[in-house]
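Input.
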Amino acid sequence: MSIDDLERVPSAGTEPSAAAAAPLRRSGLYTLQPSATAADLTASAADSDPVASENGRAESGAAAAVADADAGAALVVEELRVDVDGLMPTMTVSGARSRLPGGSITWIARVSWSAVQQGYAGAISYRDGTASLEPHTHVLVKLAGGPPSGGPRRARVKFTGGGHPDVMRTYVFRRAAFRQVGIEYDRVDDATAVIDYPLHAHPNRPADLPNATLTVQDAFTRLGIAVTKSGGDDVVPVIKAGTDSLWTDIEMHDAMQAHWSKWADTPQWQLWTLFAGRHIQGPDLGGIMFDDIGTAQRQGCAIFSNSFISTPRPGDPQSDQAVRRLRFWTAVHEIGHTFNLAHSWQKNIDFGSPWVPLANEPLAFSYMNYPFAYPGGEPAFFAGFRYGFSENELLFLRHAPERVVKQGAAPWFDEHGFEQVRKARPNALQLTVRVHRTAARFEALEPVVAEVKLKNTSIAPITVDRNALLGERLSVIIAADGRDARQWLPYARHCYLADPYVLQPGQSLYAPLFLSAGLNGFDLAEPGRYRIRALLATESGEVLSAPLHIEVRPPRSREEEVLAPDVYTDEVGRVLAFGGSRGNTPALDRANEVLRETVTRLPDSALAVHAAAALSRTATVPGQILIEDPQDPHLKEFRTLAPDPEQALPLIEKAYGDPGAAADTLGHIGLSRQVEQVAAALAATGGRTAQEAARLTGAVADTLAARNVPPTVVSSLRAASDSPHSH
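Output.
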């Protein structure tokens, strides 16, 4: 890939000047020609389209009639993207076809010029959507029209193969841009915005790089993604970042809603870029695609000028231009993430994306690679960087399904933080997501509880944050077969002070994950197969887990189907995630009632174990509720509810009577913590309940010991029933 010139994409419907030195560009967006009669199409092919015939003979009227009938049978909207010339062509033809009724499909074919057929020919290698809308296997594309032959530019496409009759469709040229996107830039009053860069400003560059100034819009527009300003240029008061002048993701999201004229929580070809001072993570964060809140994500990014990207380069006589270059590069890099582009070295991560599998490109001279991570560092990278994207990235930008690329549509697996990795070393930490059962199959309605484990696999101690697995540094992605990946958003995030902890060789940290429900709702409600991966941001770099494959089984009975709508509610999800509720609101009282119904109506189900565990814990362990004064709602007080452990014994038996089954569904961590609390509360009351506490802890401790749970956990569990006041 190289820059031959700074070719600008014409606006829609604009023909290049006849005096232009470059040949006529035929790549771009075409749309299905309105239906005509078979005779009209045949005449048009024979009279005005010199490439619409083979060996001087017009295409048959039958083929044209098929196209006409195909288009006229229903409401059809169809686009064709031709990518065979112009700047950095990928030799690809793709189509997006929607039929009402009938669904939609995106198909892609990699093509080459056929001198025999006088057109671009290739096999359809990718489909996303309703396959029956385009069942053929091969395409032949013939381009005609425009200067000097006259007439509008057209593409006639012959679809063949797959055991279906050949079909001919005609498309008319609409514009040279494959996508059109609006952008707004806003700047914080303590920051510097860099939205252009003179390509010859620094001597370290490819020798034949054109001498021109490239804007952020140009970086995309000249490659077929027309980016134009839709407003912006607001100056955002730094006070919106709080008194510390450091930006958090939520503060940037709030600023986006306040200052972006196109803000909407819906997919749209629009994006917002904020030039800010510094992120709360510190000077090692140069930029971030921060928008992972709400339904529509990937619409906003930020560049931090008071970070390492502005650090002068010692010994470089053009240090100021090196800084400007990296600031410009950072802006395009983060905007690339809003299009769902991954880092060059992350392309083979399988998070359930509907896009084609790709190989990593760690040596790519691309905006999506890190200059300082390139072999030889920044000097080596910029010596070969031609201010573009790799061929695979261009294929994605120009041809991937709209729902994958469009801002606000499919979410992405990572916050896409652009972090300084010059100091990074190979990561000796290993992250694992697992479940404690022989086969990772879950019943219908059964909550999916997993465990995340961080292990030191090196031969030397490593200092980590003891709370690393409990806060926002941990991201979990859930991908169902045939559906977009979603980030698991727990109901609560814990905010801890950093707690340095020396993790010895072979030692691990653990945390439970209640994956079934969260702020997204119930991500694992539908029967099917899922892949679950975790990503942890550590001081030594990102640590990615191997995928955990699980299966959710369909309902086994009519009773499960009837109960499902009551179980899959936000209130029930929260009660199960937090291990119980003492009610005191209509919604939470109703959730507890659903759990009681579950124990009665589905007594042999795994969900009944979770329901009984939640109900028995709140009935056994003392707790408080917030009470409003009925005369004055502004007056509130906490009131302690007396436990009723005797009444809770049947629920305790249901939850933990089979310790092996309880360990399978509640997880080792959840089971041990719950039983410790319940046993301590039972022991505190004395008598029969104290005896039950000893029996319970003994049985569960024996089960966990047999499962090789660390001895410290087992010992703590056995001691719970001996410490009446430990709760």
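The chain has four domains: 28-175, 179-419, 429-552, 558-720.
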